[in-house]
Amino acid sequence: MKKRIFSLLLVAAIAGSALVGCSSGDSGSSSAGSEENGNSAGGAKQLSITNVSYDPTRELYQNYNEIFEEYYKETYGEEVEVIQSHGGSGSQARSVIEGSNADVVTLALAHDITLIEQSGLIESGWISEFDLDSSPYTSTIVFLVRKGNPKDIKDWDDLTKEGVEIINPDPKSSGGACWNFLAAWEYAIENNNNDEEKAKEFVRDLYANVTVMDSGARGATTTFVENGQGDILIAWENEAINSVREYPDEYEIVTPSISILAQPSVAIVDENANKNGTQELAKVYLEYLYSDEAQKIIGENGYRPTNEEILNSFSDTFDLNVNLVKIDDFGGWDAAYEKFFDDGAIFDEIYEG
């Protein structure tokens, strides 16, 4: 029986503005931080910034925050603390809209940040504020199967077979799940002569085999890897890579013939950053993701660096020849959401129909 699990992994640390360490004071520091963000004893500034992210990035940002804090102190002579929050990308976006005091968001897809923009918290044009459409790393979607691949999973069509149990997050709360759905849809379209009715039948059969639908991608990984449920996990590439690294004798990765270029996006939450006095700090925090040092950490954590030279140095980690469809092929996120994920759209039609 299908179970739709809504176990949002929100971190209580972002529930109120007190944790951002704001205090009143004059701005005008020559550094990237502002005195409004707090002072520690003896006059030394203690800056803090809150990054609201999606759930599979927790290890990436634990590592990144460490080098960023060192970089910031060496460059600006001030200590900074980065507070992390992780959960399903759509759920995280809603938490910011509802009051979570994020200075920056690093979410699974641009659409989730656009929702925050539409609430008035992020200024228009955010997608052009940083390089490459404000996507400092990319990923894709793969299959994680149990060692030996007992169900003989090779491509998307194998996921529709009778008796195959799939673990997959919910597109209503998980950005990764939206990427999963679009990759499966593209496979169905290309293998059914662009017949959308047949594509609907295909994804309906696939989702009929989903036995657990967690609220976020990390929850789905936990269900499959740690709780031992299901035959296959439709996963972010980094989740699959890290699972195999941790349990090399228990899991293996299958790369489908068609997948999607997933572009997680980043943005400053301008309303909060202006209030917290962290606007310049937030900009430095996101810009540094494009540095060589950060790009290497991105690759080490199973995400694809956008720096081509550094990406190629991880050619033994990533399949760089996989056929990747892009969100632009669906008309962009606004069009994709309207067609597939809005209430009453194709996902609801095939899952609830």
Secondary structure elements and their pairing?
Layout: E1 3-4, E2 46-54, H1 58-76, E3 79-87, H2 89-97, E4 104-107, H3 110-118, H4 131-134, E5 137-138, E6 141-146, E7 166-167, H5 175-190, H6 196-208, E8 210-213, H7 217-226, E9 232-236, H8 237-246, E10 251-254, E11 258-260, E12 265-268, H9 270-276, H10 279-287, H11 292-300, E13 304-305, H12 308-312, E14 323-325, H13 333-341, H14 346-352
Parallel strand pairs: 1-8, 2-3, 2-4, 7-8, 7-9, 11-14
Antiparallel strand pairs: 4-12, 5-13, 6-9, 6-10
Helical fraction: 25-40%
Q: Give the total of domains.
A: 2
User: Helix/strand-derived class?
Assistant: alpha/beta
- Alpha-carbon Rg, integer: 21 Å
Order of helices and strands: EEHEHEHHEEEHHEHEHEEEHHHEHEHH
How does the overall form come out from the CA principal axes? globular
Give a short account of the largest sheet. 6 strands, mixed
* DSSP strand tally: 14
Reported by name, the CATH topology of the largest domain is D-Maltodextrin-Binding Protein, domain 2
Account of the protein in words:
The protein is of the alpha/beta class and 353 residues long. It folds into two domains: 9-137 and 264-312, Periplasmic binding protein-like II (D-Maltodextrin-Binding Protein, domain 2), CATH 3.40.190; 141-261 and 322-352, D-Maltodextrin-Binding Protein, domain 2, CATH 3.40.190. It is 39% helix and 17% strand. It has helices at residues 58-76, 89-97, 110-118, 131-134, 175-190, 196-208, 217-226, 237-246, 270-276, 279-287, 292-300, 308-312, 333-341, 346-352, and strands spanning 3-4, 46-54, 79-87, 104-107, 137-138, 141-146, 166-167, 210-213, 232-236, 251-254, 258-260, 265-268, 304-305, 323-325. The chain has a six-stranded mixed sheet. Strands 3-2-4-12 form a four-stranded mixed sheet. Strands 5-13 form a two-stranded antiparallel ribbon. The protein is globular and about 60 Å long.
